[in-house]
Design goal:
DUF1722; 43% helix; 2 domains; alpha/beta; UCP037004; elongated; 4-stranded mixed sheet; 4-stranded parallel sheet; DUF1722 domain-containing protein
């Protein structure tokens, strides 16, 4: 293992033009709900808004239903529900589906890195939306909003979440990591994804992929090794990459990656330093300290000992520190 005192600090998220993120318009504070109100989410517009450019979408308004409007709900078969107004019983299903089909094709040109949907919405909820029986009774919480379904079918690998789920720190971190990885991959494609670029990208993202899916990370490595003879290697790699990142990282997988990185310091650190690092990783495994603590200590050793391979790892800084996504226990 070659080390050098001139090795740069671990790669940080680059300051470039904001990535584009689709979002349910009401979450931005726009008064587009059926009653003329909104569901402003201040974390989305405040913290996340510093790093993204929003592309707002309100299915009901854009489909021509107006504001204010009669409230509506999903009715019938949860696998293929109808969109029906609650008071008058108007069936708006085909109007919404026709609009959604057009809108997702428009969004294909927006270079979106993800979408945040409004939870429980009959148009925008991505899961657990109420679907009412035709003749009364208790609703099933198994529906998907009509626009959300159209979007996810059209873009099956693009990261999506609901604002309610983003209150879970692990789901929030996973979503944000996926956004930044997709952005980095698209930047690579824009510069020309030849074999050398693919090898470089995988080398930088290998440990991050391992924290999400060791099996897919291994498959990605095999693909990269054969990339020179595979014309479709970038497409296949992208599918594997996004599938891997869609699997939330676990404590056990983080520990595996942290221990792997700690191995790079065996010959350059003292026994006390190695013991300290092992104890910090174990404290994280036991839930006594947040992930940011062992990561910070490893960053310290990377800088001090100039471990070039680790310095380039996206895992050590996959998103802006200001988002504080690794501060949870």
């Amino acid at each position: 293992m070659k080390t050098t005192n001139s090795t740069p600090a671990p790669a940080a998220v680059r300051a470039e033009a904001p990535m584009r993120l689709g979002v349910s318009s009401c979450l931005l504070g726009n008064p587009v709900r059926f009653d003329g109100g909104h569901k402003h989410d201040r974390w989305i517009t405040g913290e996340l808004g510093r790093y993204v450019e929003f592309v707002p979408v309100c299915p009901e308004v854009e489909a021509g239903f107006g504001t204010p409007r009669e409230a509506m709900r999903l009715v019938g078969d949860p696998a293929a529900p109808r969109l029906v107004t609650i008071r008058s019983g108007r069936d708006l299903t085909e109007t919404m589906r026709a609009w959604a089909a057009r809108r997702v094709e428009e969004l294909a040109g927006e270079n979106l890195c993800g979408f945040v949907f409004k939870s429980r919405s009959p148009s925008s909820g991505m899961a657990r939306v109420k679907v009412y029986p035709e003749k009364g009774g208790m609703p099933a919480h198994t529906g998907v909003g009509l626009f959300a379904r159209a979007f996810m079918e059209r873009f099956p690998l693009i990261p999506v979440e609901e604002e309610g789920r983003l209150s879970d720190p692990r789901l929030r971190e996973n979503f944000i990591e996926r956004l930044f990885v997709l952005r980095a991959w698209r930047d690579t494609l824009a510069r020309g994804a030849d074999t050398a670029a693919l090898i470089d990208f995988h080398a930088r993202h290998k440990l991050l992929a391992m924290a999400h899916s060791p099996a897919l990370a291994k498959d990605m490595g095999r693909l990269v090794a054969q990339a020179a003879s595979l014309p479709d290697a970038p497409d296949r790699y992208e599918a594997m990459l996004l599938a891997a990142m869609a699997k939330p990282a676990t404590v056990a997988r983080h520990v595996n990656v942290l221990q792997h990185m700690a191995g790079y310091f065996r010959k350059t650190t003292t026994q006390d330093e190695r013991q300290e690092l092992a104890e910090v990783i174990e404290d994280y495994r036991r839930g006594l300290t947040p992930l940011i603590v062992p990561v910070t200590l490893i960053n310290h050793h990377v800088r001090r000992h100039g471990v070039e391979y680790l310095a380039r790892q996206t895992y050590l800084r996959p998103h802006p520190l200001e988002l504080k996504l690794r501060n949870y226990y």
